[in-house]
TrEMBL record, chain B:
The lineage of its organism: Bacteria, Bacillati, Bacillota, Bacilli, Bacillales. InterPro entries: Cyt_b/b6_N, Cytb/b6-like_sf, Di-haem_cyt_TM. This is Menaquinol:cytochrome c reductase cytochrome b subunit. Its cofactor is heme b; heme c. The keyword Transmembrane helix applies. It comes from Salisediminibacterium halotolerans. Component of the menaquinol:cytochrome c reductase complex. NCBIfam families: cytb_ExtP, PRK03735.1. Residues 5-223 form the Cytochrome b/b6 N-terminal region profile domain. Its main location: membrane. GO terms for molecular function: electron transfer activity; metal ion binding; oxidoreductase activity. The main subunits of the menaquinol:cytochrome c complex are a Rieske-type iron-sulfur protein (QcrA), a cytochrome b (QcrB) and a cytochrome c (QcrC). One of its GO terms (cellular component) is plasma membrane.
Length: 270, 223
């Protein structure tokens, strides 16, 4: 670095006023077919990166991230499962030598030794030799660790009851039918409706839960009048006004006009 | 025009050495997949970084809707997933990205291990790498609770039980993470803070050190 007298600065700053040449370094001294990172290599990296990104976006659209029902700390029957990359640890804790009184072994000792060794690898294996086949102990230990992780993850996935897991986490639409509403009262006088959809409107002998699909008032009226699928039309007994009140009540997910229902959220249990 | 802007900035801020330090270096033949296809193993570190960037960006967008308290957390995620335009994609990117970081980082670690690149003079960078590994696992663990659904809650219960089984510090660590005896409102608030502020801060600091050392030492030579 140049110091001392004779230096010219940019204004009153500490920047030296001199023209920098803006040409890339010369890499010809490096061995082999060396390439400049900027811009040659970076451009190629970006092209590969965009292909990768497109594939990734397709994955996210094809497989939406899962979401189960809201946490219920009281539900002690739930079989827990961590995200897949912790499964090997989770599985380890299921073996007798690492569970119960020996949990410390599975939770602390074994992972501690493994990750500790990983952290200290440069000092455990300080030799100069870099090729894996020339340092058989390190190489075989690492292979053993990788195989164990894959095996434990596999066992854990295999042992888990995935069907039960899906069921226990399922979002259940939990509908609170307002039994004091006028619409509810009107429904109670419709023997034909009750016959299929049940007295509580939540489904019965031949019909599904009335609130299952998201229809608006008009559509509900249409369905009641003209029928849909197996359901016959023209079963409603009462005035047009009563029909409208009932339809509104149904479109509103079992609430009197205006509260609940239409946020499309189906989870009114706060 | 661009040249003029560049010169204007350069006179004032002397930016040439800065970007030169960052971007102007050689890519040796043995790490360039264009010359030897098997050199793609040297890309795993860069891919890990790429996914980390995806995580940071998608995470920033998630916090625009996510509400970190036990009453609203689930609702806000549900809303984001089902109502917000492209919310499903943003959440999906963060969800799948989390797995992808782990996979890429694992492959990167194996590459560095099997090429013996952790040896002198790169010991310190290896240690920083292992710390990065822990930070990323921590991000996975704390992030998993945030949607506050069944799997989130009970995985955290198990995780904290495991932490508690550690001798001496176990009870303290689990209380510190859970924010008390029960896993509830405090736990969610803490996991959120750890997931969004503490660990990303550590991650960025460690990444800075990681990249600085790589530039300083250069990539390890051919085997
Ligand atoms: C967030 C996680 C990480 C990122 C983004 C990252 C990124 C990178 C990048 C871009 C390189 C340049 C060479 C390459 O791409 O292979 C590199 C090199 C290196 N990384 Fe990582 N890394 C991460 C985690 C790790 C881990 C977990 C370890 C080890 C346990 C590690 C150890 C090293 C070492 C020792 C080098 C120098 C290798 C050489 O000179 O050949 N890094 N890292």
């Amino acid at each position: 670095m140049q110091r001392g007298k004779g230096l010219k600065f940019v204004g009153d700053s500490r920047l030296v006023d001199r023209k920098k040449q803006n040409i890339p370094k010369d890499y010809s001294e490096y061995p082999g077919k060396t390439e400049a990172f900027w811009p040659n290599f970076l451009l190629r990296e970006w092209m590969v990166g965009s292909v990768f990104l497109i594939g990734f976006l397709i994955l996210t659209v094809a497989h939406p991230a899962p979401l189960e029902r809201v946490a219920d700390p009281m539900d002690s029957g739930y079989i827990p499962l961590p995200d897949w990359y912790f499964l090997f640890l989770y599985q380890l804790l299921k073996y007798e030598f690492a569970a119960g009184d020996y949990t410390v072994i599975g939770a602390v000792v074994i992972p501690g030794i493994a990750f500790g060794a990983l952290l200290l690898a440069p000092w455990i294996d300080p030799g100069k030799e870099r090729r894996p086949q020339k340092r058989p102990i390190g190489t075989s230990l690492m292979l053993l660790a990788v195989v164990s992780i894959i095996y434990l993850t596999w066992e854990s996935v295999d042992e888990h009851d995935w069907e039960a897991a899906e069921q226990q986490g399922e979002i259940v639409e939990d509908i609170d039918v307002d039994e004091s509403a006028e619409g509810y009262e009107i429904y109670q006088s419709q023997d034909s409706c009750i016959g299929c959809h049940g007295g509580d409107m939540l489904g019965g002998a031949a019909g599904p839960n009335i609130f299952e699909s998201d229809y608006d008032t008009e559509q509900v009226i249409e369905i009641i009048e003209d029928g849909i699928g197996e359901m016959p039309g023209g079963q409603f007994e009462g005035s047009d006004e009563e029909l409208e009140t009932l339809a509104e009540f149904i479109a509103n997910d079992g609430q009197e006009n205006g509260n609940g229902g239409d946020d499309g959220n189906g989870n009114n249990d706060e | 025009m661009l040249q003029k802007i560049y010169d204007w900035l350069d006179t004032r801020l002397d930016i040439t050495p800065m970007w030169r330090d960052i971007a102007d270096h050689e890519v040796p033949e043995h790490v360039n997949p264009a010359h030897h296809f098997s050199a793609f193993v040297y890309c795993f570190g860069g891919l890990t970084f790429f996914v980390v960037v995806i995580q940071i960006l998608s995470g920033m967008f998630l916090t625009m809707y996510y509400v970190p308290d036990i009453v609203h957390a689930y609702e806000s995620v549900y809303y984001l997933q089902n109502e917000v335009t492209h919310g499903m994609i943003v959440r999906g990117m963060h969800h799948w990205g989390a797995s992808l970081v782990i996979v890429m980082m694992f492959l990167h670690t194996l590459r560095v291990f099997f090429t013996g690149s952790y040896k002198k003079p790169r010991e310190l960078n290896w240690v920083v790498g292992v710390l990065l590994f822990f930070v990323v696992l921590g991000l996975g663990f704390t992030g998993y609770l945030l949607p506050w659904d069944m799997k989130a809650y009970f995985a955290t219960v198990v995780g904290l039980e495991i932490a508690e089984s550690a001798p001496i510090i176990g009870g303290f660590a689990s209380t510190l993470l859970a924010g008390g005896e029960i896993i509830g409102a405090q736990t969610l608030a803490r996991f959120f803070a750890i997931h969004v502020f503490f660990l990303p801060g550590a991650l960025l600091g460690l990444l800075g050190a990681h990249f600085y050392m790589i530039r300083k030492q250069g990539i390890s030579g051919p085997l």
